[in-house]
């Protein structure tokens, strides 16, 4: 036994699956060159950090800015310049500012190539539930319904299951829907899944988990055809 | 005899104190309030509205206020009977949360883009339009669904206001406005959709000082101007833990 | 007989009624202070010349300008700056420029206080026909239908009758309509008429014509109540 | 391994010759063309479209051309199967008049504001909306009439285009545009409503050279850029009695 193998044997079992940053990284690798992208709050917005250098991407935020980047350091924020998550941002060369109706004309009119959002539940028909977990609490939707019905493609970044281990990919959503037939891809800590013609197509899988184990965490059949990528994200 | 001339000057807008600008807002009025996050909230006007005392207001804003200033304070003071917004939930929206859970405030949740388009429609004389947004969701329940080119859309109605309260960066005396970055957000369409748009401005300049090509809100949409050169950002007040009144 | 009376007796009879400029002048006297006004091509646009000094009026043109005034002299026109009649104009201090959809949002949304237009036919219910005389020729409407249905008030400046002497104010329009129930006032060479609750109310009359003679040129009953102004325009 | 970075640059637009920019326009395409009177007509692009040879086009423009250049020349060359416009009649619109009277061109007359709003709706993803304009007139015949708050409105459908041809004053490489005075007219909404907006610009600048607050058409609506520093005003060509080709 080598020292490394010895260390691995005595350490607690290696966690299977991607970290949050790695999930964002994996989605970022697929963002097409030349696209206008809207990133939701949380893991989706992390994706901007990992888009390959030189790829042309312009970011849109619902509250009326196209072409923004990272904000100034803490304490130097300009609170007149925020994104949809109310975080301070900065303007990149070629930015533009417009009012809310024009901003959502971009979304509703199909001009945003890609929206990446979080998810509570996703069904193989593309239905998405991500705005409320049931009917309790204050119903707050923001721009999610506009994004999922307007953007040309909708991808979700989400843990594959809930913290309690329940499947998020399921035959039919049980939570109130955000949109119907809208999700085209799902990036989870365990897999990349394309949503095509009413079915979940497995495209990539995390190291250390089998297709059968993945299927057990997925409450809807996975189509497994062709070569399945084993994801190899950098340490993040 | 009148000499033929084209000397009639353009329409100038009244420049008033916040108090005078809001004096005639009656109980029950619908008030559109600009702002998104900390950007563009007309804090000074909202505080003047609290002082003014109007009750049973219907408020249209993207959110439902934060902390204990601005819209949150107006809600806490129980002046708001109903709020129409897209995202009323926030850790710091305790004023709204309390009133809502106590059943003292009515909430109409509207998708953000539908909210923006309904306000723009109100300003543009379009009584109703169709959108894909919310089709198949609970927010489309009870609304007319109609297919165009084989896809379903939901019919949405215009929103208009009796007043709009917005904040801009620069106003000329004819009511032409420019804004500061993302503080623009809902303000231009709210000015369009209100019978009387009350605008607080950091800078007040003479007609001609704003390049006609760069005017964002043409003066025709502006009702009254309040000069607030020392306006405070809501986010700054919030971080200071300020409370009004 | 004085020399003047002698001249009058031998000259051809003095023409009854206002000149085109005088009609525009008469309408201009009534343009409210503080109003946004859209003036149609022809006699309506002449009205801008005669608005009393010091009255605050801002002019709108459909093609996206608010706050314009007279254009530069012939030969110095900037053809990027024209009005709806394609005439070169100039910008006054406080002007603004916007695109066509925003321009018609102003009109359709009821933000234009007053539109003054020409007319072929007007009915006492406020119906207006001013875009085509019958169904022959090329149908061209421009912004007329938007203006008459969107502006808060619609006034017409028109000769009282056609060149052939036919009435333009009539019980019901026979030409294709531009809008229904929209006209609130009519300024003619012979009279000022307010359109109120489905009836033509005579408010002012030209010098040298009786109410009976005016009624004979009007194919719908005139309501004659209160004091009737005898118009006294300047020589124009 | 990819280093975490936010260095991805924004989307740059192709800068092409007029010929290359229009090369893929097929027969039967719908082309939205900016301009009102002499202001904003993309004459150089229209002439390149004549050279390109596409036929059976549906053209959307406020007018139907003047003289023997630009849109009038395109019509005279019998490339236009249908035109959607508000005001096709003019003393100088002899090309259209001849084709129309000969029954070789279809005309859809649309009120100017309805035309603008239909194009804006096309760009904004609104399939249909209601307007008061044209109610009770021949232009509302065959259209759905519906009452809101006791007043009748007519339903109008969105207009979209396969291409838009517009003229601007200044473009940056990311497709952000500003215009020259009333030459703005239909261009911003046509860029929104077309699958591919081809923009001819007098000035071409680097990203960052246009103040983000003053951008009229954000780059997202721009497809291709054609740099025409020596563009000629249509009105000037018309007054010179020019003829193309």
Tell me about the biggest sheet of chain A?
A: 11 strands, mixed
Strand content of chain A: 15-25%
Order of helices and strands of chain B: EHEHEHEHEHEEEEEHEEH
CATH architecture of chain A: 3-Layer(aba) Sandwich
Shape of chain B: globular
Average pLDDT taken over every residue of chain A: 94
Q: How many strands appear in the DSSP assignment of chain B?
A: 12
| Most extensive protein-chain contact, per-chain counts | C-D, 41 and 50 residues
Low-confidence stretches of chain B are: 1-6
First and last CA, distance of chain A: 29 Å
Low-pLDDT sequence parts of chain A = 1-5
Protein name (chains B, D): 3-oxoadipate CoA-transferase, alpha subunit
InterPro entries (chains B, D): 3-oxoacid_CoA-transf_A, CoA_trans_fam_I, CoA_transf_BS, NagB/RpiA_transferase-like
GO molecular function, one term (chains B, D): CoA-transferase activity
Family (chains B, D): Belongs to the 3-oxoacid CoA-transferase subunit A family.
Walk me through what this model shows.
The complex is a heterotetramer, with 2 copies of chain A (236 residues) and 2 copies of chain B (245 residues). Chain A has helices at residues 3-10, 20-30, 43-46, 100-108, 144-150, 211-216, and strands at residues 35-39, 57-61, 65-69, 90-97, 114-117, 121-122, 128-129, 153-157, 183-187, 191-196, 199-205, 222-223, 229-230. By secondary structure, chain A is an alpha/beta fold. Chain A has one domain (28-231): 3-Layer(aba) Sandwich (Glutaconate Coenzyme A-transferase). In chain A, strands 1, 2, 3, 4, 5, 8, 9, 10, 11, 12 and 13 form an 11-stranded mixed beta sheet that branches. In chain A, strands 6-7 form a two-stranded antiparallel sheet. In chain A, a hairpin with a 2-residue loop joins strand 10 (191-196) and strand 11 (199-205). The longest helix of chain A is centred in the N-terminal third of the chain and has 11 residues, at 20-30. Chain A is globular and about 50 Å long. Chain A starts with a helix and ends in a 6-residue tail after the last strand. Chain B has one domain: Glutaconate Coenzyme A-transferase. In chain B, the strands form 2 sheets. In chain B, strands 1, 2, 3, 4, 5, 9, 10, 11 and 12 form a 9-stranded mixed beta sheet that branches. A 3-stranded antiparallel beta sheet of chain B has the order 6-8-7. Chains in contact: A-B, A-D, B-C, B-D, C-D. The interface between C and D is large, with 41 and 50 residues. Chains A, C: InterPro entries: 3-oxoacid_CoA-transf_B, CoA_trans_fam_I, NagB/RpiA_transferase-like. Chains A, C: This is 3-oxoadipate CoA-transferase beta subunit. Chains A, C: GO terms for molecular function: CoA-transferase activity.
